[in-house]
Amino acid sequence: MRLEVERLTLGYGRRTILAEASLEPLPGGAITALIGPNGAGKSTLLRGLAGLLPARGSVRLDGEEMAGQSLERRARSIAYMPQSLPQGVALTVMEALVGALKASPTAEGMPSARAAAERALALLERLGIAELALVGLDRLSGGQRQLAGLAQALVRRPRVLLLDEPTSALDLRHQLGVMRLVRELTLQHGLVTVLVVHDLALAARFADRVVMIGEGRVRAQGTPEETLTPAMLAEVYGVSARVERCSHGHLQVLADAPL
Amino acid sequence: MSGATLAVAGAAAGYRALVLRRVALLALLTVLLIASLLLDVATGPSRLGLADVARVLLNPASASGPVSVIVWDVRLPYAVMAVLVGAALALAGAEMQTVLNNPLASPFTLGVSSAASLGAALAIVLGVGLPWVPQEWLLSGNAFLFAFLSVLLLRSLSRLRGAGVEALVLFGIALVFAFNAAVALLQFVATEQALQQLVFWSMGSLARATWPKIGILALALAVAIPFTARAAWKLTALRLGEERALSFGIDANRLRDGALLRVSLLSAVSVAFVGTIGFIGLVGPHAARLMVGEDHRFFLPAAALCGALLLSLSSVASKMLVPGLMVPVGIVTALVGVPVFVALVFTRGRRS
Ligand SMILES: Nc1ncnc2c1ncn2[C@@H]1O[C@H](COP(=O)(O)OP(=O)(O)OP(=O)(O)O)[C@@H](O)[C@H]1O
Ligand SMILES: [Mg+2]
Question: Would the keyword Membrane turn up in this protein's UniProt record (chain B) (predicted)?
């Protein structure tokens, strides 16, 4: 499994947001974190990878160009979690998951309604939210909604996992839980995983690669050590920051002051 | 057993119970609908009771001429038409609300009924109609054509420059005003007699029910329902947001086009035959949503059943409201529907 992105240009209508973004090939079994300031184009890039935006350039999965593929075909390999869930939906967490599974065939074909329900439940248990199975999406807290949204992407058992801010509303324990689960799934199934995070410590700790986006361009990419430098943080985020190792050896980013 | 596996076992059982409860609610609605249909057939100014009606139906030879006429040509077609129109309008409203992602969408609020009125007004006031349509179908034919075209117009307007779903709803509301203005203009120039006919037409009434019309509406439902059923899972997934639905491999535009085509067929046929009946297409889906949620396997049939039940009850009420007189059912739907709806909202609110 290998995702290659070359000279990808994305935008909305006539407005170009991301110009000629090229990424070093993203291998299976590795997590890539997209970081960058608000409005930099992270979500746009993720949408582009998911094939949801008209694009110029090339996105290839195992050498095969994604642009020519039908939505249904693409959905067999790629799962995408948008930044938000819509409001006012009268579905329970379970019903939404079963609906996500039955919407179109997954890589393993179309499960029966019963099998879909079993799969959905097993996933909820892994996410530690089995007790929310029968709660309406509209009755969930912000973090619970995020977990439910994540489950809707994971339940399709994709080969490429694209997550837009999966942890931004979660408490400490759930942040770790989700990142660990994502890492486990990524390693276990050799997934290509790309996720957007704002928490740089989380990115440093769990991502194998970090891509820093600023003002619609890829500003840096590489290992966390290579990309998370005070110079880059000053340039892209406009903050003076220290990058230090904690007593456990994890990289920590400490922002001191806006520049 | 650990806490987690307990929770899973509980959730599994709970989900099965939830599905069963929804099926049971559908069954209950069906029973209520049958009861309402019977009640509808058994009431009317002619004081024929259910027993008399049953005798005519079960043993046609025994009944005397007038009784048989009342049952076969008045009571039954009215009652059946109420059920079919209610189901068609509510089903159309339900699909519309889902694909337009707007709880205020309905054939009525987005101009389908107004377009039908315009078509009817053209026929009544100016005698304009399709050349190959026989005279007695001119009105219905015109109303159907305009209603059908209005949805297609709506769709193509929204496709211009990819305006999006929110714009579609706004266009629909704009169309309502445009059609209403055109109808008002026609009313202004109409003769007194034409005006009266037009006003009466616009008040939805089951008195126009005939067996051929029932046949056509049943056919429209029979054509639409299999496609609706096939789209049910996709419609459920669309509720999770268009982007997410796309990532599930759902072509949202195609799904929307298919749904709007079905909506235009069902609502155009209904409005063409019985005139403007406002409330059902909006509230049928809401009642269904309150009862069974938005898993479209249950939501769509529940909406159709709720709509049918509401219109059938309205039909009964329309005969009882003013003794000896049948009030046009279009006037009654809101009178019956609003209390039912408010009660539903309150019971739901209390339960949660
Ligand atoms: N649907 C849209 N239509 C038009 N412009 C958009 C749309 N979505 C985003 N943009 C614009 O694209 C730019 C990048 O937005 P994007 O959502 O990719 O940012 P982001 O990096 O994900 O930011 P955040 O951290 O706030 O989520 C912004 O300037 C935004 O205004
Ligand atoms: Mg974003």
Answer: yes
What is the reported pLDDT for B349? 59
Residues A209, A24: Cα–Cα separation, whole Å: 10
Global confidence as pTM: 0.92
Question: Going by DSSP bridges, is the β-strand pair A2-12/A55-61 parallel, antiparallel, or unpaired?
Answer: antiparallel
pLDDT of B303-335, one tens digit each?
Answer: 999 999 999 999 999 988 888 788 888 888 888
A 10 A CB-CB count for A230 gives 15
Task: For residue B252, give the nearest of B325, B164, B174, B332 by alpha carbon.
Answer: B164
Integer Cα distance of B4 and B333 in angstroms: 50
Q: Using CA positions, which residue lies closest to atom 28 of ligand 1? A: A39
Could you read off the pLDDT of A165-176 as tens digits, one per residue?
999 999 999 999
Inspect the interface and report whether the beta carbons of B249 and A96 lie closer than 8 Å: no
B55 — contact with chain A (CB < 8 Å)? no
Taking the CA of A81 as reference, the closest ligand is 2
Please name every residue paired with A65 in a beta bridge, in sequence order, or none if there are none.
A60
Domain boundaries, chain B: 75-351
Name residue, tokens 């409201």. Answer: B321
pLDDT at B1: 46
Query: Is A1-77+158-223 a domain of CATH 1.10.472.80?
Result: no
Give ligand 1 pocket residues (Cβ under 6 A): A 12, 17, 36, 38-44, 83
Domain boundaries, chain A: 1-77+158-223, 87-153
If you measure from the C-alpha of residue A213 to the centroid of ligand 2, how many angstroms do you get, rounded to a whole number? 11
Contact: B243, A74; criterion CB under 8 Å: no
Q: For residue range B185-206, list pLDDT tens digits in order.
A: 999 999 999 999 888 888 888 8
CA-based radius of gyration for chain B? 22
Closest CA to B272 of B212, B316, B231, B226: B212
Reported ipTM = 0.93
Please report which confidence band the pLDDT of residue B350 belongs to, taking 50, 70 and 90 as the band edges. low
Q: For residues B107 and B93, is the Cβ–Cβ distance under 8 A? A: yes
| pLDDT over threshold 80, residue B3 | no
* Closest CA relative to residue B74, chosen from B45, B98, B108: B45
Expressed in angstroms and rounded, the spacing between residue A40 Cα and the centre of ligand 1 is: 7
Buried b / exposed e over A49-79, threshold 16 CB at 10 Å, is: bbbbbebebebebeeeebeebebeebbbbbb
pLDDT tens, B133-166?
Answer: 777 788 888 888 998 899 888 888 777 766 677 8
| A41 CA from centroid of ligand 1 (Å) | 6
**Contact of B206 with B145, CB cutoff 8 Å:** no
Contacts of B101 in chain A (CB under 8 A): 86
User: How near does any CA of chain B get to the CA of A66, in Å?
Assistant: 13
Asked whether B56 and B42 are in contact (CB, 8 A), the reply is no
Rounded mean pLDDT of B169-178?
89
CB contact under 8 A, B237 and A90: no
Q: Mutate which of A9, A16, A17, A194 to test ligand 1's pocket (most atoms within 8 Å of Cβ)? A: A17
CB-side neighbour CA atoms (13 Å) of A214: 12
**DSSP of A83-131:** S---SS---BHHHHHHHHHHSS-BTTB---HHHHHHHHHHHHHHHT-GG
